[in-house]
Amino acid sequence: MELLDKIIPKKNLETASAPTQVAIEKMSYLQDGFETSKSCRGRASNLKTGLETVYENYFNQCKLDHHKQERLKQPYKTELKDVLTQLDTKKEKITQISASISSTREEIQQLKQDIILVQKQPENFGIDIEHKSATKLWIGLFLLLPLSIYIFIFYISTSYSAFFKEFDPETSLFDGVFEANALAKAFQDGTLELGFVLFIPFVFFSLGYLIHMFWERKHTINYIKVAGLLLITFMFDAILAYLIDEKVHYLSATIDSAKFSVSMAVQSANFWLIIFAGFVSYIVWGLVFDMVMNENAKRDKVQTFKRSKKEEIWHRNRIISRSLKKHEKLKEEIAALKIRNTRLQSIIAGFILPIQNYKAFAVEYLKGWQKFIAAELTLGKGEQEQLITDCRATYAEHVKMLDLEADNYQNKVYTPTF
C-alpha cells in the first residue's frame, strides 16, 4: 500500500462511534497501558513496543472494518461524482468552443476571398459601378477648382470692402466689390483685419459642406436645416451688398439726398448684382461639390465594401482570441479535475486511517502506562520523574516515526500500488 497523506482537511469524518462507545474504548486503552506497564515495571523500551503493537492492532482493525471504511469514503465518493460531472460539462464546453473557433475561421477565410473577388467582379456583390462615374468626377473636379478660387477671392474682396475699405469719389462699383490688394491692405491695417478677411471664405465652404451632408440624409429635419443654411448665406451676402452699395451711394450724395435705406438697396441694381455675384456662384459651387462627392461615393463603393469586410475580420479575430482564452482556461481546469479524479479514485480504492482517533487512544495508553509508574512503582522521586519523562519522549518519537505529529488533518489515506 502507498501512503497518500495530508490531503484531507481536519474534520472528524468518523461518526459511527457514539460518545459512550468512545469513552469505553478510551478506558480500555488506559487499562491496557496500566497493565502492560505493570508487567514490565514501566520501562520506556517496553512502551515503544507496546505503542507499536497498539498502532498495528488499530491499523488492522480500521483496514478490516469495511462498514467504517464505507462511511469514511462516502464524502470522497460524493466528491468524485461531482468531479466527473464537471469533467463532462467542461469537455462539452471545450468541444463547443472548438467548433465555434473552426466556424469563425472559415468565415474569416470567406471574408478574405470576398475582398479579393470584389475588386474583379463587384457586380457579384451587388455593387453597380457606372463607367461614366470617373468622367463625371474629373469634370466636376475641373469645374470645382476654379469656382473655389473665385469664391475665395470674392469673399475676401467683398468682406474687406464692406467692413474696412474707405471709398473715394473715383471708386467704381467693380473696384468696390473686388479689391485686388485686399490681403495686403488688411495686413497693413492689422492682424485681426487680416485674419477676418483671410478666413471668412472658409465659413462659406463649411456651410456648403454641411448642406451636402444634410442633403445626403433624406429627412424632413435635414431639408429644414439646408433651407436655414441657404438663408443664412443669402443674408450674409445681402449684408455685404448693402454695406458696399451704401458706401457707393454716399460718394455721390448731397446734403439734400435721402438717407440710404433697405428699400433703396432693394431697388438698386448694384445691390442685386453683388448678391448674385456671390450667392449664385456659391449655389453653383455647392451643386458641383455635391455632384463630385456623390460620384466619388459611387467609385468608393468597392473600398467601402472592403473596409466593412476587414472590420468584420477584425471583429471575428477578437472573438477567436476570447474563445482561445476560454479554451485554455477550460483545459487547465480539466487537467486539475483529472488529477483530483485520480486522487479520489485512489482514496476510494485504498483505505482511510483516522489518525486523530488513534492519537487519542495512544494518549490514553500512555496515561495508563504513566499511571502505574506514578501510583504503584516504588522508585525515588527523581527516578520516577525521569522515567515518566523518558516515556513521554518515547511516545513523541513513536508519533514522529509514524508521521502523525500534525494536527491539521484528520485522516491518512493509504492507496494501493499497482
Explain how this protein is built.
With 418 residues, this protein is mostly helical. Helices cover 78% and strands 3% of the residues. It has a 3-stranded antiparallel β-sheet with strand order 1-3-2. The relative contact order is 0.17.
What topology emerges from the helices and strands here?
Layout: E1 2-4, H1 19-39, H2 44-64, H3 66-120, H4 133-163, H5 173-177, H6 182-189, H7 191-216, H8 220-251, H9 262-266, H10 269-299, H11 301-349, E2 351-354, H12 355-375, H13 381-401, E3 411-415
Antiparallel strand pairs: 1-3, 2-3
How would you describe this structure in keywords?
disordered N terminus; mainly alpha; three-stranded antiparallel β-sheet; 3% strand; 13 helices; single chain; 418 residues; 3 strands
* Helix content range: over 70%
**Alpha-carbon distance between the termini?**
9 Å
β-sheet strand percentage: under 5%
Largest sheet: 3 strands, antiparallel
Arithmetic mean pLDDT: 78
Q: Outline the low-pLDDT stretches.
A: 1-17
Count every helix, treating DSSP H or I runs of 4 or more residues as helices.
13
Structural class: mainly alpha
Spatially, the strands of the biggest sheet line up as 1-3-2
Record field, number of beta strands: 3
- Write down the overall geometry: elongated
Radius of gyration: 51 Å
The H/E string reads EHHHHHHHHHHHEHHE
Count of folded domains = 1
Can I get a quick summary?
The chain has helices at residues 19-39, 44-64, 66-120, 133-163, 173-177, 182-189, 191-216, 220-251, 262-266, 269-299, 301-349, 355-375, 381-401; strands spanning 2-4, 351-354, 411-415. It is mainly α and 418 residues long.
